[in-house]
Specification:
Elements (H helix, E strand, L loop, with lengths): L6 H26 L14 E3 L2 E4 L2 E4 H8 L12 H12 L7 E10 L6 E11 L6 H21 L30 E5 L22 H13 L15
Parallel strand pairs: 5-6
Antiparallel strand pairs: 1-2, 2-3, 4-5
Helix pairs in contact: 1-2, 4-5
Amino acid sequence: MAGGSTQTASVGAGVVAACAKIKQTVLALARRAPGSPLRGHRLADLQARDGGLHHAGGGQTYADILAAAGRDHVEGAIKQGMLGFVVGMLRERRRWVKAATGAHFCEVRVDPDTMEVRVARWLSVFDIGTVVNTRTAESQMRGGIVMGLGLALTEQTLIDPRNGRIVNPSLSEYHVPVHADVPRLEVHHLGDPDPTMPLGIVGVGEVGITGVAAAVGNAVRHATGTRVRDLPITLDKLM
């Protein structure tokens, strides 16, 4: 499932576990071969690199290990049902609290006559653990910021109190941010791996939207002296 910042971390955990199983299998094959430089070494003492298993005094490639064992391949599989995953996740939550965090900085410009608000500059910095794919992670963060700008300035569902009817049901009446509403979004991530997670991944998820409206509200307060607590921040609330 892609949701709750779990997909990359969950898939990554499965891949890491399967790779560990393969390395154990390969090391067991190497130990059976006379003269193998890996004999007498534990898996914890070895590094998987350069197409094989290596230690400070040498190593052996996977191809050589398989050839000596008369094998053309090895397999490693990890099977765990959803129930096992959920139980494991709940058990881990008793020990650790894992969450992506971030900080937003923005500059807004407010027209003194019309009180129209424009976001002029934006900078966000996130702590999301190891970033597996920089392009998609930064795209996810920028998308969250754009959603937050809609929450802060334009998006509002209007409901007729007499009958509960939504009176702005289409995109011609429900205003989402467009290119003219969004400045250049400068996004950075710390790249610090989480030592409690497989591959150090925390997950991006929806952290990009969190705090955007607060940052805009603070900037509007600094520019106008008016603290708006009812989103979106529209012209009538600043008049």
